[in-house]
Write a structure and sequence with these properties.
The structure holds two protein chains of two kinds. Chain A is an alpha/beta fold. Helices cover 30% and strands 23% of the residues of chain A. Chain A has helices spanning 48-55, 78-87, 105-115, 122-135, 152-164, 182-199, 210-216, 234-239, 244-252; strands spanning 6-17, 20-32, 37-41, 63-68, 71-72, 88-91, 170-174, 202-206, 219-224, 227-233, 303-306, 309-311. The two termini of chain A are 26 Å apart. By secondary structure, chain B is of the alpha/beta class. Chain B is built from ten helices and 13 strands. In chain B, strand 12 (309-312) and strand 13 form a beta hairpin. Chain B is globular. The two termini of chain B are 25 Å apart. Classes of the chains: A alpha/beta, B alpha/beta. The interface between A and B is large, with 44 and 47 residues. Bound molecules: adenosine-5'-triphosphate (ATP), adenosine-5'-diphosphate and magnesium ion (MG) (2 copies).
Chain lengths: 317, 327
């Protein structure tokens, strides 16, 4: 495989709260390869968005390194950071709140062009805006529409066009389809996949929807309370999940298949524990059906159990 | 033997009328739910699912919500003709409802145990004493997997999944004949969703409650329902047993589109089938079949005439494609 476009090494982000240190991202090591999609899955609050924002340098890591095209970008500032910002973009979940309702579609899409001086001159900006609208499938007649007049799918298309405006290499997609109906979700997923194929984009795709993540990702990271507990190619992960949490997650998906005389699925019990000052050891242990004495006490390293399949669980050590 | 009919909705219309516009939310739907049966109502945002549920409980907003026509029979009585006292006994008594956001049903400043007790007192036909009620509260909490020792805690001390379980506990405390669950797990993570769905399935067997399960998730439908109604633009465009909906050969093009649009966990698909276009505007619905502007099989008749209902056993299809055959 080629060199990763993005790589994190012992990446951590702790937030100070009144009740203690909240370990939002706790020692994450992962790579994203050019032209590929890394899916990030896990339950609410496990640190997915925080990880995405760290990669984009929207928040500062507590410690650890982030390599982009081989360079550690954690110390970047000034012009270097500004240039970096053009190479990395984000698309948010909520197409409702992430767009300014007082701006027209063309104003929203052209703003990053103007701010970053990617294109200059009124005519060129208008042309580029029109091109971007076409790329993401927004009808020309909508140029002067206000975003609040549009439906969720179209608003998400605006979000995509805006992200594409600066010709980035890497886009963090943070739950971009979670607020959309399935028929519209399919339209946006297809658009994102077409753009990747045509422009060689690299994605980090954050979602809690396992069928969506399987469909769009080449590789998948499973997170639990700030840690990556398993990484594998998408097909490998669904064929052969190793971590008990991944197994529980996959078993929890309601399948659109009739299954009369339903065998009761073993649902895992309990809930996510607190990310504040967690004790060393596997964070999943309190809910794990296979818990052993050595699960707690010391942190469990992520090991390469089989080629390109990484897992952090005492069972495999 | 076929179970007794519990709820029958007949040609129901719901609309919202404001100074500015008229929203046609539900446009002539009919269905029945038999005792102990679970009917799934599936459809995308704005299809009219919640409006249907609110109409059944007469909970539509006073000033704007209207039921221009239709009947809703519950155990032989027309809910649309009930007086205040009858409605009070119906809601939270014979029919209970769970919403997507558990906080719609919970009071943030009252301990959860007390909220269950109040629900029990409100419908205390058996004349239970204070002590008996406390015991019932404990049992109810344990039934939904929450230790009764936590009954003095407030909702905010519980996670989303636990709050939803408290809501279920309250809903079931009065032994309703029918439980209406409107997207009960949409706000929850999958592992917690699995717990809540397993709980609903378990309680429904134990307490013999019928369920109207409202969701946009076909997976949840397959796992919980006996019968399924697919809604689009305020109409039921396909109805049948889960087998009819998930395994039969004939389907409404919209149902086909819905299945094509969801990524499959156990199959490789390069590209999702997408339904082109958008849901129609409920203030300005298209003539003929409401799905025709998005339909791949659209014929001239679809633009003009409302499709008839084609029936094959329990399986109903509202589409001109099947209009001329008779099964
Ligand atoms: N600015 C902040 N200050 C304090 N805590 C924070 C901050 N941002 C995030 N957190 C906490 O960090 C943890 C991870 O949050 P994050 O938003 O990354 O989760 P997520 O996986 O994206 O969840 P979701 O699926 O709900 O979007 C949570 O416990 C959250 O409450
Ligand atoms: N209180 C209301 N006032 C006006 N329109 C409403 C109101 N509630 C719902 N609607 C409209 O009625 C239609 C059906 O909505 P709803 O029953 O909530 O659908 P669903 O639950 O299937 O998403 C939608 O177009 C919605 O915008
Ligand atoms: Mg998030
Ligand atoms: Mg609804």
């Amino acid at each position: 495989m080629s060199e990763p476009l993005i790589k994190t090494v012992h990446l951590k982000k702790y937030f100070e709260t009144s009740r203690g240190l909240l370990h939002a991202v706790d020692d994450v090591n992962m790579s994203i390869f050019p032209g590929r999609t890394l899916g990030v899955v896990g339950e609410s609050g496990c640190g997915k968005s925080t990880l995405g924002r760290l990669l984009l340098r929207l928040i500062e890591p507590t410690s650890g390194q982030i390599f982009f095209e081989g360079e550690d970008i954690v110390q970047y500032g000034g012009i270097k950071l500004r240039d970096l910002r053009k190479k990395m973009q984000i698309i948010f979940q909520d197409p409702y709140s992430s767009l300014d309702p007082r701006m027209t579609v063309s104003e929203i899409i052209s703003e990053p062009l103007i701010v970053t001086k990617t294109v200059t001159g009124k005519k060129a900006i208008a042309e580029e805006t029109a091109r971007l609208m076409e790329v993401v499938g927004l009808a020309e007649r909508l140029v002067n529409a206000y975003s609040h007049e549009l439906d969720g799918g179209r608003r998400q298309r605006i979000g995509v066009a805006r992200a594409l405006a600066v010709k980035p290499k890497f886009i963090v997609c943070d739950e971009p389809v979670s607020a959309l109906d399935v028929s519209i979700q399919a339209q946006i997923l297809n658009l994102l996949m077409d753009l990747q194929r045509d422009m060689g984009l690299t994605y980090m795709f954050i979602t809690h929807d396992l069928s969506v993540v399987k469909h769009i990702s080449h590789d998948i990271v499973v997170m639990y309370l700030g840690q990556n507990v398993e990484i594998a190619s998408s097909s490998e992960l669904f064929r052969k999940p190793l971590h008990p949490y991944t197994q529980a997650l996959l078993a929890s998906i309601p399948l659109p298949k009739v299954n009369r005389g339903k065998i009761k699925r073993d649902v895992i019990r309990g809930e996510l524990s607190s990310p504040i000052d967690p004790k060393p050891g596997c964070r999943f242990a309190p809910r794990c059906p296979e818990k052993r004495d050595d699960c707690v006490g010391q942190d469990i390293p992520l090991i390469e159990y089989s080629p390109n399949h990484f897992v952090s669980c005492v069972k495999y050590m | 033997m076929v179970a007794k009919e519990l709820l029958r909705v007949e040609d129901l219309y719901v609309m919202y009328k404001t100074d500015m516009e008229e929203v046609h939310a539900v446009n002539g739907i009919s269905f029945t739910i038999r005792e102990q049966e679970t009917l799934g109502l599936v459809g995308e945002t704005g299809a009219g699912k919640t409006s249907t549920a609110l109409a059944i409980l007469r909970l539509l907003p006073d000033r704007t919500g209207r039921i221009p026509s239709g009947n809703i029979w519950f155990q032989g009585k027309n809910i649309l003709e009930m007086d205040h006292e009858e409605l009070r006994r119906l809601r939270g008594g014979d029919i209970a409802m769970i919403f997507q956001d558990p906080m719609t049903s919970l009071n943030p400043v009252i301990p959860v145990g007390q909220q269950i007790a109040e629900a029990l007192l409100l419908h205390n036909e058996e004349g239970l004493t204070r002590e008996q009620i406390e015991d019932r509260v404990d049992e109810t909490l344990e039934l939904v997997g929450i230790p009764s020792s936590r009954k003095n805690e407030y909702p905010h001390q519980f996670s989303g999944g636990m709050k939803q379980r408290v809501v279920i506990a309250i809903a079931l405390s009065c032994n309703p004949r029918l439980l209406i669950a409107d997207e009960p797990t949409t706000a929850l993570d999958v592992t917690i969703q699995a717990q809540v769905l397993a709980l609903i399935n378990e309680l429904k067997e134990k307490l013999k409650t019928a369920v109207l399960m409202i969701t946009h998730d076909l997976g949840i439908i397959a796992e919980t329902c006996d019968k399924v109604a697919v809604m689009y633009a305020g109409e039921i465009i396909e109805y049948g047993t889960v087998e009819d909906i998930f395994e039969a050969d004939k389907h409404h093009p919209y149902t086909v589109g819905l299945f094509g649009a969801i990524p499959k966990i156990h199959e490789e698909t390069d590209r999702l089938e997408q339904i082109e276009g958008l849901m129609p505007d409920p203030t300005d619905l298209p003539p003929g079949c409401k799905f025709h502007p998005r339909c791949k099989h659209c014929m001239p008749v679809c633009r003009e005439k409302e499709p008839p209902v084609f029936q094959e056993g329990d399986h109903l299809l509202k589409c001109h494609l099947f209009g001329n055959s008779s099964g």
